[in-house]
Amino acid sequence: MNTQVPPPPPRQEADRWAEIAREAADTGTLDELLTRAEFLVRADPQLLLPLLARARSTPARLAAAVWHTSAHRHIEAGPEVRRRLLAMDAARWGARQLATDLATGLATDPAADPVAGSAAVLPWRVGWATGSQVSASLRSFLGSGTDPVTAVAVSAAEQRPLAVTGHAGGAVRRWDLRTGVPLGPPLDAHDGAVATVATAVLDGRPAAVTGGLDGTARIWDLCNGQSLGPPLTGHRGPVTAVATAEIEGRPFVLTGDDEEGTVRIWDVRGGRWLGRPLENPIWDDGVEATGWVATAEVEGRPLAVVTSDETLRVWDLPTGAERDHPRYAEGGSRVTALTVSTVDGRPVTVTGSGDGAVEVRDLESGRQLGRAFPAHEGVVRAVAVTTAPAGRPVAVTGGEDGTVKIWDLGTGAQHGASLIGHTGAVTTVAGAVAEDRPVAVTGGDDGTARIWDLAADRRPGDPVRGHTAPVTSVATAVLDGRPIAVTGGGDRTVRRWDLDTGQQCGRPMTGHDGEVVAVATALVEGDAVAVTGDGEGVLRIWNLRTGTQAAEPWAGHEGPVRAVATAVLAGRPLAVTGSDDGLVRIWDLGTGRQRGRALPGHHGEAGALATTVVAGRPVVLVGGADGVVRIRDVESGEELDRSLRGHGAWVQAVAPGTLDGRPVAATGGRDGTVRVWDLLTGEPLGPPVRPGDASVVGSGWVSAMTTAVVAGRPAVIAALPGDATLRAWDLRSGEPLGAPLPFPQPVTDLARHPDGRIVVSFGWEVAVLDAPRAVSCREID
Prior knowledge:
This protein is mainly beta. 10% of the residues lie in helices and 42% in strands. The protein contains 9 helices and 54 strands. Strands 32, 33, 34, 35 and 36 form a 5-stranded antiparallel sheet that branches. A 4-stranded antiparallel sheet has the order 1-54-53-52. Strand 40 and strand 41 (617-623) form a beta hairpin. Helix 5 (58-69) packs across helix 7 (79-92) and helix 7 (79-92) runs antiparallel to helix 8. The longest helix is centred in the N-terminal third of the chain and has 18 residues, at 10-27. The protein is globular, with a radius of gyration of 28 Å.
């Protein structure tokens, strides 16, 4: 008999936690309350956000950091999703006790079981995780990922610092910068995505100007959220740049579009544009980054500064005449970000460029101040100027590399550590002050907006740092009797991890010239080795005990090596590799030589690859762009006459196993299906599983896959990047085994260790999922 007491209704539960929070505030025990796992899981986010901003003790600040890390994923989710994400993020921060407290609730929390028995059927708990992308400077998120952020700006209204965000759905939102709490309902701004936002004081009232892909600009009163006049219309293309200025005491708005490449000047009070647009002032069609518009005042004259390829152009706004302004050197990199500020009493332009550099120039003379300094690996997508804790002006830059950095404008030196967390390019930046602390607000291609405390100088947790770029590949091995994981990443390193402790084994293994995109392990003459392939088409073999290369690099593929697997033939260890050249090559790990010719006949990249044994013969399974999985005999290289046909698009993942003594394989394709096959006959076992949302194209495609035993049942486990989850299905019936397991970011690769643990990579991170008891995998090996 189930004797569990059902949870209270949501409203009643919210009221109960609100009363507990009020009591804690009255008795001075708020910090203690913030460390309670159940409060973090069940409290209404709108109640919790302002309380997290008041955390003072180290444990309370750590709990706040954990809650904020993936808030965009769980702020609008139910308690069961929030609990699992918080447990993962607690592990990433090194908050082991909090992670344990959160995981313990899974066993007793009825809300953690939306699918009957899910808490028992999906048994994995996070054992440990790295924290390369957690930052003590992260103060809060603005909203969830359901309506991606496309633009940000900052202002103040009624003595309260505000952030203003534009969204992909056309909405504009206002936020309290101190707490991250929304102010009022969203403003229904544009028929299409908001491309740009600027703020100003117009006729004594704080206002925001927004430009949209619908070709209009709108002006908003930030105090009451009301529109100030009708939309500004007239541009032929999307309005992608806006700025404000005052000319002879009257407020004006400047707007630029990315189709005509023109800037128009609008009288705010009259709602009309003045005269002709600035002639051909800005960006050309088809460039990587849109143009930028900024305004400034020099000797009492309002100016407009606009980007034009590798140059800046300056216009006198009262007359509409272009001022003489020295161009950049011929052949310079394209200007991709622009702001105007004041340094040591003189107006300057601060620009980012396509080669990752930042330059500061005197606005009046055009003279460069100091040297350009390298800011990012790749394009600088956004730049703003604010004040550092020491009172000096600093530039805050966002890059294509997903990082946010702070720079001393006088010396060009980086101020503090990079702000890590965005999972895509950082495309918009604004600086402000909240509670007497300098903050930056950033938005990126990952659809999130984040508030960063630029004065943060204390690290509340103890995260384990690892890869410094996305982790692309995962494998497992046993080294000197201890289970380990081996990972490769975009930082061109290969790393070893102790599965029990989560600590790195020795130094990272370096030598690849490109990102490491494939890893597999094997035993060669009793030594555990890893075989890795990179984006340059080069293979390397590493001794996992010493961390050194065991042989000279192997070359042969004419494209990035996308997949590596290992096999044993007549007692000899082999490596099987697949590449963008569509070929599969087999290598003798003992001699380092390629075995026979490359195996042809694959369509597109050979990126889904696995080895297994069928009828006593080692075979390799290779998925192609045509939706077919081909089976080749490792010894002869011949293709068997039972290719697996059924997927309607690229096969991205292949996972072999054994079911009832017969060899099987699970495959996942970009057609949004997971299929299980009998490898002796080539026939499917049951109908395909469609794991994604049928209403969302591409939501069900699989990025990685393995087989395992889940609660005693042979299962296939697949990573779905569309919703950043792991899911499991019964290999026999295709029935789902419990609810999806959410992750902070999409899972890029996974591997099962023979003891039942699952090693997972997401973003720059590595995590290990532990089963609550030893699991035998004999049924699937």
